[in-house]
Amino acid sequence: MTPLTPTSSDRAGPAATVDLAPLRRAARPRALEFAFWLLPVAAWFLFPENLALLTQIAITAIFALSLDLVLGYAGIVTLGHAAFFGVGAYAAGMLSAKLGIGDPLLGLVFAAAVSALAGAITSPFVLRGTGLTRLMVTIGIGMMLFEAANKANDFTGGVDGLQGIEMTPLLGLWSFDLWGKTAYVYAVAVLFVVFLVARHVVGSPFGLSLRAIHMNAARMPALGVSVDARLTAAWIAAAAIAGIAGALLTQTTQFVSIDVLGFGRSAEILLILILGGAGRLYGALVGAIVFVTLHHLLADVDPEYWQLWIGLVLIGIVLFARNGLMGVVDPFERLLARKETKR
Amino acid sequence: MTVVFDGIASGMLLFLIAVGLSVTLGLMNFVNLAHGAFAMFGGYVCVVASGRWGIPFLPAVVLAALATAALGALLERLLFRRLYGASQLDQVLFSIGLVFVAMAIARWGFGPAQQPIRLPAWLQGQVHLGGLDIGVYRAFLVGLGLAVAYGLHRAIGVTRFGARLRASVDKPDVARGMGIDVDRVFVVTFALGSGLAGLGGAVGVELLGLDPSFPLRYLVYFLIVVAVGGSGSIPGSLIAAILIGVCDVAGKYWMPQIGAFIIYTVMVVMLIVRPHGLLGRK
């Protein structure tokens, strides 16, 4: 601990001792980021045959971003995140199939609102316990929703899935075509907006306080931060984003299958985030790209070996590469940062 | 009443498998989602030993427990011990990875089909007890479960090894200072937990079935027992397992339309009312 009293006379006060420059630097978009966002544009021209797969990647990336907020930043380990993905998927599906409202953007907003509500209802239960109890409550909530959707045949279609979803043209201009062009542009645009919002939130004082809670939850109340209120807000925001991802899946495939709520999806998205690197937004994006692509390439070869490789990769990451794929970038970033400070 | 007894029997089986997890997760604080994989291993050893090698049922069960304990000890030395101090997330990821690998190996070795097992003649049929028709196999499960519960409760609470174990878990550094070989205590305990999983997996093949998806299918059930029972509490796990077993069987019997929903509801409610479990410490 450093003494609180100023040791040299040139310091004006306690505020002057906080150096905000690194935070301001982090808020500025970097050249590499611009390059990264050229990828979806390049993919459009390079793989016109695989737009459906690319749409999947974009949706998975939104879902992973959502998990990154609660797990990577707020530090809540959850194995039931598919609950909100599924709620969003069913909300968007039912809006069209049951109420006949097929406007995509309206569906997106509706799904986000319903998922946020689900997040608000579940958050006190999740935040009550710690450790294993918290993990089990997230699993329990996920499984409860899965079973509920499974049994409520009349509303959800049960194991047969929800059918009869029809989308009106996007903004009244572009209808969803057979080749998935509209779907791809739509999904990538939503991903970009969600990413911008998430990037802003993560760099804001709120986002910093989440990271601080993750590091030391006992100390934050002493600094005047209400831990539960911040975590609840993060949980609800993440639920809404997961709902958006689920709604996108519904709207682009015009179908809701019961596995949107499955335990497997919760485990898979956790894996994707860890693979890419948790606690950084690009980790979620890179994880989604690598995972969905590999799955597509390897699942044709042999599903058994696919599972074996996933298991080995997970064990390998935990034992040897704690920062995931994005951890590879770290040494270069440090090098860049050193250059900048020298200048 | 038969429904209740069936519920108790399946609860006992659940207890037999989950109590090993109560030892590794509850006492040693390792979030071991791979516990079901050890139970599956025990099941396969039992099936191979009794089906292909013609070993009688009981020796085959003992062999399964011993083999699983040996596997547990080996994996503890090689892998698990590296993660004792790691974060919960790391342990979750590592053990899920292990589950995937185990499932892939099981499918590669035995194919995706259910493995059949033939119970010996003395475990088949029913007995009449006080106006109840009780399956001998289920009565056997209840008896074995009670015996394991009592033995383990005594072993951890009364014996010298139990005292060493509790000391090693609570304050490893001080325990080392007192001359306790903490590493060895952990290996033995982990082997014990895995062996119990193997035992439960072996006797449970008849009731639960055995195929490569076993570890994931029942994972949540095992975790529920430990979480609801309270970390490291053997009596707590017993009560929780029976509670879950009875709720599950009774729910499926009387209210099939809501089915498995009831278990998760029971679990979430229990955890909200008592976040540290029924008989948890802390």
Give the gist of this structure.
The complex is a heterodimer of chains A (343) and B (282). In chain A, 70% of the residues lie in helices and 0% in strands.
List the helices and strands and how they pair.
The complex is a heterodimer of chains A (343) and B (282).
Chain A (H helix, E strand, L loop, with lengths): L20 H7 L3 H16 L4 H23 L8 H16 L6 H25 L2 H21 L1 H4 L24 H23 L1 H11 L11 H27 L9 H14 L4 H21 L1 H18 L9 H13 L1
Chain B lengths: L1 H26 L7 H18 L4 H22 L9 H23 L15 E4 L2 E4 H22 L2 H11 L1 H6 L4 H22 L1 H4 L5 H16 L4 H21 L6 H13 L9
Antiparallel strand pairs in B: 1-2
Explain this structure to me?
The complex is a heterodimer of chains A (343) and B (282). Helices cover 70% and strands 0% of the residues of chain A. Chain A is mainly α and 343 residues long. Chain A has a domain at 49-262. Chain A is globular. Chain B is an all-alpha fold and 282 residues long. Chain B has a single domain (2-273), classed as ABC transporter involved in vitamin B12 uptake, BtuC. Helices cover 72% and strands 3% of the residues of chain B. Chain B has helices at 2-27, 35-52, 57-78, 88-110, 136-157, 160-170, 172-177, 182-203, 205-208, 214-229, 234-254, 261-273; strands at 126-129, 132-135. A two-stranded antiparallel ribbon of chain B has the order 1-2. In chain B, helix 1 packs antiparallel against helix 11 (234-254), helix 2 runs parallel beside helix 4 (88-110) and helix 6 packs across helix 8 (182-203). At the A-B interface, helix 6, helix 11 and helix 13 of A face helix 4, helix 10 and helix 12 of B.
